[in-house]
Amino acid sequence: MAVEVATQKIRWGELEEDDEGDLDFLLPPRVVSGPDENGFKKVVEYRFDDKGNKVKVTRTFRVRKIARARLSKSAIERRSWPKFGDAVQEDVGARLTMVSTEEIVLERPRAPGSKAEEPSASGDPLASKSGAVLMVCRTCGKKGDHWTSKCPYKDLAPQTEAFVDRPPTADGSGPPGGAVKGAYVPPSMRSGAVDRVGHDMRRRNDENSVRVTNLSEDTREPDLLELFRTFGPVSRVYVAVDQKTGASRGFGFVNFVHREDAEKAISKLNGYGYDNLILRVEWATPRPN
Amino acid sequence: MRPILMKGHERPLTFLRYNRDGDLLFSCAKDHTPNVWFADNGDRLGTYSGHNGAVWSCDVSRDSTRLITGSADQTAKLWDVQTGAELFTFRFDAPARSVEFAIGDGLAVITTDNFMGNVPTAQVKRIADDPDDQSEESLLVISGIKGRINRAVWGPLNRTIITAGEDATIRIWDTETGTCLNESDKEQGHQKTITSLSKSADWSHFLTGSLDKSAKLWDTRTLTLIKTYVTERPVNAVDISPLLDHVVIGGGQDAMNVTMTDRRAGKFEAKFFHKILQEEIGGVKGHFGPINALAFNPDGRSFSSGGEDGYVRLHHFDSDYFNIKI
Predict the structure, then answer these.
(1) Does Transferase count among this protein's keywords (chain A) (predicted)?
(2) What are the pLDDT digits (tens) for A25-65?
(3) CB pairs A-B closer than 8 Å
(4) In A81, A127, A189, B308, which residue has its Cα 20 to 30 A from B134's Cα atom?
């Protein structure tokens, strides 16, 4: 049996129109057509709008069967039972029964048709979802801040020790270019590669490096350069910036060409008031792995 | 599907029951007035006022003329379904918890709580055809169970009564002698309070839900464990689909903790499991509190859930529900 979703009861919103004067008899009668095979019912009505214009209102309803019930005789009889108890005084405005505006679906635990997967079978699938945890820098060991390739300290870390954190298969046992199947080996690490030259370069970079902490958030690299240039030629200035927010993380590195200049800078600027903060300037220590 | 929300109760729902034809839905809540609704469109037909305490459960006779309710006001009442008139009151000295009519509607089992030093009992009452002949006398009193009996139902042919409750043990009792015939295995069985029990359509097996976050399917005759459905929430309500090999399990975290955590952490969905494969089919969300009551329409095409949030949600399944492949 079909139950029409659209109720025939008059709502208060429609009643208000009545005090406009009884011109309604001038209007053509209501025309109801359908429901057709798709369950669409069309109701054409005429009414006057606020300015007294005649308006044709066409409303289309979809009549759907809510329940496919083969009702027994007694059930049909029960349909016409009068309401009793508190249900008697219940008016339309009470709205005890509402059809949810939200479409609720039976949420499948996995895509239909796909096989059940043993959880935690393939390593650690949960960890891959939370990228912040997985994002561990192999150089400085900092979690969730940057990838190894973007590490601000990568120049400081001795290249040879950078691979210590790799899984044991790639680690001590045997040459790195060997047995590990599928693992990426950079060209310079492959067997037969020429001795690395980068080592020396990094050593040089490592020296004369000054770490500046307690920088204000507004400090940018040019500012730092401005400040340190007075002591001597500066080869590199770096201010650590938060990857997500873009704000300074409050520390940076300055590399001097000459060690004496660096010494001078440390003695002068450590404890120097800069941008209402007191700077802390010291030798950058290469991070032990 | 677009569920129909029925807000007829002011307090958490406790129990839902369809009549045999599946056109009426009876709802009990911790407010004092059970309601009856049309099960197709959710219109309220009437209320049964007279109780003075939370109504814990109800049952309707096979011909949908009588309703029996058990309440915390230490009474169980018989009602005329059509008019809402109170026909008879069984008085007890402890809250009445679970009620059920036997086959033929000539008998009813009513359980009373352990309260103020009383031991919990399951009592069998004769239900007279004419309410004027009704007596309060008990034909049989089953006692000897330690914890509260949350559910007592009739076994096949009214020969047995199955009880389950706080002591996490399911027991089968002889209705003639009142002796315990069988007891569920301690190892296999539930570890915590059994909150709900629901029979299959043919009464050959039944499903129990427990606060130990699992639901178990048992053979009615031998009380052997058939299946276990493990969820991640305490189970408050279970039911078996009369149409498909599905079971539905509802619950959620303890009501007292609901406000302390995120709604998603509460696990307030009704979870569908395949009865035989024990695999999860899906979940139906919507309640803002734990689900306390679940019932399948006897035609298996709709189900309703009642929650701690005071709402009854009536779901008519979409056609794709009937074609779900595992």
Answers:
(1) no
(2) 667 778 887 777 777 888 888 887 778 788 888 888 887 76
(3) 131
(4) A81
Class level of CATH domain B4-322: mainly beta
3-class SS at B292?
Answer: strand
A97-156 confidence digits (pLDDT tens): 888 888 888 888 765 555 544 433 333 434 344 444 566 777 676 666 677 777 777 666
Whether residue A2 lies within 8 A of chain B, CB to CB, comes out as no
Chain center to CA of A49: 48
Rounded to the nearest angstrom, the minimum Cα separation between B97 and chain A is: 23
Alpha-carbon distance of A72 to B22, in angstroms, equals 10
Start-to-end CA distance of chain B, whole Å, equals: 20
What's the gap in Å between the CA of A121 and the closest CA on chain B? 18
Phi-psi region of A41 (alpha: psi -120 to 50; beta: other; left: phi over 0): beta
Of the residues B19, B35, B43, the best mutation for testing chain A's interface (the one with the most A CB atoms within 10 Å of its CB) is B43
pLDDT at A21 over 60: no
Say what the pLDDT of residue B156 is.
92
Domain boundaries, chain B: 4-322
Which conformational region is residue B84 in: left (phi greater than 0), alpha (psi within -120 to 50 degrees), or beta? left
Question: What's the rounded mean pLDDT across residues B65-71?
Answer: 95
CB distance B39 to B302 below 8 Å: yes
Secondary structure (3-state) at B27:
strand
Q: Do B4 and A98 touch (CB under 8 A)?
A: yes
Minimal Cβ distance to B21: which of A74, A87, A97: A74
Does B285 contact chain A (CB < 8 Å)?
yes
CA–centroid distance for A25 within its chain? 59
Cβ A68–B301 below 8 Å, yes or no?
yes
- Round to whole Å and give the CA distance between B118 and B129: 31
Model's pTM, two decimal places?
0.62
Residue B170 pairs in a beta bridge with B164
In the DSSP assignment, the letter for residue A32 is E
